[in-house]
Write a structure and sequence with these properties.
about 325 residues, 9 helices, 15 strands, binds N-hydroxy-L-asparagine, five-stranded mixed sheet, alpha+beta, globular, Glutamine Phosphoribosylpyrophosphate, subunit 1, domain 1
């Protein structure tokens, strides 16, 4: 368990730069000792349901558990909550009335697992983890994903609950597919964490855009788009219109920008700006699009940015668990 002393030792964001006196060295040889003190453990996740999800993840992180276990346990909270209508059990269906779930997971060794268009299983993130740990593949979709889940002992159950079914029947009257930014609050849960061992992992899970075409996949199950982790550099995850995130391979881009020396905040901003630029180039209306990124680097520094106001994310470190409104482009 992290005690207060460890916490103080690891959470000061000060960068201590010690320049040793010359000790007979020439100026050019003066050694600069730089000790960057890391903030860990830390976990962040998208939207309001990030608060209870972070709490579950924190239970593992504070006891020196693995970031991978923390992110899986964390995102299972909204997945299992029938009142959360955009993730897991109780999620909104596609236009055929089928609840199809997408999820992916990535650990500190770049092990990856994903499921797409998975039906009848409450915790797609755990199926994604099983794909990662128990198959020679990294992604299973549709019937194959379901078959695999059942073979692993996952239980088949109805995920379409009354509220979502009612909404779908209402939607059928017009059958207009026009996802509105932030209306489906809250959406995908993406979670990234840095554990006390200094390892990063991430998880992302969703029922996708409501009333999507059957078989549609968004960014959330796609490593590099909805989630990316590089244990040397940082981690990022996304929410919003998956088509736009896939277009720029969003989370991989964010992590690569961090690798180039950008802060997590700057990296998220640049990724959003790239989507904005392409939206204009393609003559589409920016007002119709929402995308949000959250990111974390190896030092435990965080960042978040989105296109439209209204996206928030939850951060849990040793000082507590809090919800933060992300900065946005269309100010
Ligand atoms: C998707 N990115 O399926 C997900 C949905 C989402 O806010 O996050 N909506 O495209």
């Amino acid at each position: 368990m992290t005690n207060r002393r460890d916490f103080l030792k690891t959470t000061s964001m000060a960068t201590v730069a010690v320049t040793l006196p010359s000790f007979g060295l020439k100026a050019a040889e003066v050694i600069k000792v730089q000790s960057v003190i890391t903030q860990k453990p830390i976990v962040l996740s998208t939207w309001n349901f990030g608060i209870p999800a972070n709490t579950a993840a924190w239970e593992i992180l504070k006891n020196n558990g693995r970031a991978l276990d923390a992110v899986e346990a964390g995102v299972k909270i909204p997945e299992g909550d029938p009142t959360e209508r955009s993730v897991g059990y109780g999620g909104r269906p596609d236009r055929d009335g089928r609840v199809t779930l997408d999820a992916c997971i990535m650990d500190e060794l770049s092990n990856i697992g994903a499921v797409g268009c998975l039906e009848y299983i409450k915790h797609p993130i755990s199926v994604a983890r099983a794909v990662m740990e128990k198959t020679p593949h990294v992604m299973l979709v549709g019937d194959g994903a379901l078959q695999f889940a059942l073979s692993q002992g996952f239980v088949k159950e109805n995920l379409l609950l009354e509220e979502s079914e009612k909404e779908w029947k209402e939607w059928l009257k017009t059958s207009q597919y026009k996802p509105i930014a932030n209306i489906e609050n809250h959406d995908t849960i993406g979670m990234i964490a840095l554990d006390t061992h200094g390892n990063l992992s991430g998880a992302c899970t969703t029922s996708g855009m409501a009333f999507k075409m059957h078989g549609r996949l968004g960014d959330s199950p796609i490593i590099g788009a909805g989630l990316y982790v590089d244990n040397e550099i940082g981690a990022a995850t996304a929410t919003g219109h998956g088509e736009e995130v896939i277009r720029i391979v969003g989370c991989h881009l964010v992590v690569e920008l961090i690798r180039q020396g950008k802060s997590p905040q700057k990296a998220c901003e640049e990724a959003v700006e790239r989507i904005v630029k392409l939206t204009k180039l393609r003559n589409k209306n920016l007002k119709d699009i929402q995308v949000g990124f959250i990111a974390l680097n190896k030092k435990g520094e965080t960042g978040a940015y989105c296109i439209q106001g209204g996206f928030n994310y939850a951060v849990h470190d040793a000082t507590g668990n809090r919800l933060i409104d992300a900065e946005y482009f269309t100010k």
